[in-house]
Design a protein that fits this description.
The protein has helices at about 25-35, 65-70, 75-90, 115-120; strands at about 45-50, 55-60, 95-100. It has a three-stranded mixed beta sheet, covered by helices on one side. By secondary structure, it is an alpha+beta fold. The chain is built from four helices and three strands, in the order αββααβα. About 25% of the residues lie in helices and about 15% in strands.
Length: about 140
Amino acid sequence: MFLNRSVPQPHHNSGIISPTANPNYLGLVQFLVQPFLESPETLSVDCEISQALNRVWIRIAFESTDKGKVFGRGGRNIEAIRTVIAAAAAAAGQSTYLDIYGSTTPGREGMSFDEDTEERSPPPTRREPRGNDGSRPIVKPRLR
């Protein structure tokens, strides 16, 4: 027996995204990424949804100067963003792929952070001395 029948009873499915509805990925990514940017208007978000594969490709671009803030120490910020996006996609029965591009400045379109780092020279490596025949020298342990 209900004391007050005028109060609507909660639906059991309220707040759950149905498998046929797609989350607003563009709004979600903007909401998650813009607080890290010095110039939020430079954020560019593109979303491609494949209904056949239940896969979502999200591409974002922003100024390279904000890269450190978006990624965070040890990549914590970007991993948290990916986790939230993946959770929204999982609720809709989809999987996601997030691709991050380095700059929205003219002349650098399409260059991702990965490509940006490839331009740098690799760190110097330590070379071990080798014998005349190319083999490694035998190192004897020191006795103290």
